[in-house]
Amino acid sequence: MFAREHIEYKALDLPDRADLTDEEMLSQAREFYDTMKRRHTVRHFSDRPVARDVIEKCIATAGTAPSGANHQPWHFVAISDPEIKRQIRLAAEEEERKFYEGAGGDEWLKALEPLGTNEDKPHLEKAPWLIVIFAQRWGHFDDGTRFKNYYVPESTGIASGILLTALHLAGLVSLTHTPNPMKFLTQLLGRPDHEKPIMIVAVGHPSADAKIPKVAKLKKPLTEIMTLLE
Ligand code: IYR
């Protein structure tokens, strides 16, 4: 499908990828950690709008993610249309109602208690943008025949992480929302059947009285998430 040609990494015009000293590297790594430590999932949005160009650039950034065989098995639908947002909210709240009324199961519902979430999802209308991320189970050649995609959840997961990072660096807040089941998004947004909706990312600015759950500040210490074998 793709010609087996290569280009020299060194020949790419990447001046800011020049060799860093160990100190510079550590300082860059620290700076980025401090930036990312300030990312929080926010559920309360103001109605301050966000320019479409910003959303487009953040999605383009997500599209730089690595993927299985470089098939880039993702599609992003960016919605600011109030009527479509309203329809998504209504459909999501219908699914969430069943979930919180018991379909989620005791263990799951208990795990969510500290977050204080419920079936009301006003942010799906309030946030100026919703980005719905789809994973493509397979791709199509120009002649319409199918090819298989590889590591689809991993690839779309990485792209989603890069999207959240790009939004944060653009000064925005986001909320990853995963109504269960999410199939209604395929129909509502007119996407093909081979695409699986994986999450809705609500994007915007926090409201003046936005709150985050206290537990969200508790990240596991490095010693717990890392094993060092030197
Ligand atoms: N989809 C539900 C439930 C929910 C599930 C998880 I896992 C969360 O981290 C938060 C919520 C909802 O959005 O309310």
From TrEMBL:
Question: Per its UniProt record, what SUPFAM superfamilies does this chain match?
Answer: FMN-dependent nitroreductase-like
Going by the UniProt record, its keywords in alphabetical order are: Flavoprotein, FMN, Oxidoreductase
Q: Which InterPro entries match?
A: Nitroreductase, Nitroreductase-like, Nitroreductase/BluB
Molecular functions (GO terms): oxidoreductase activity
- Record's keyword annotation contains Mitochondrion: no
Query: Locate the Nitroreductase domain: which residues?
Result: 37-205
Q: What is this protein called?
A: Dihydropteridine reductase
Q: Which organism is it from?
A: Pelagimonas varians
Its organism's taxonomic lineage begins at:
Bacteria, Pseudomonadati, Pseudomonadota, Alphaproteobacteria, Rhodobacterales
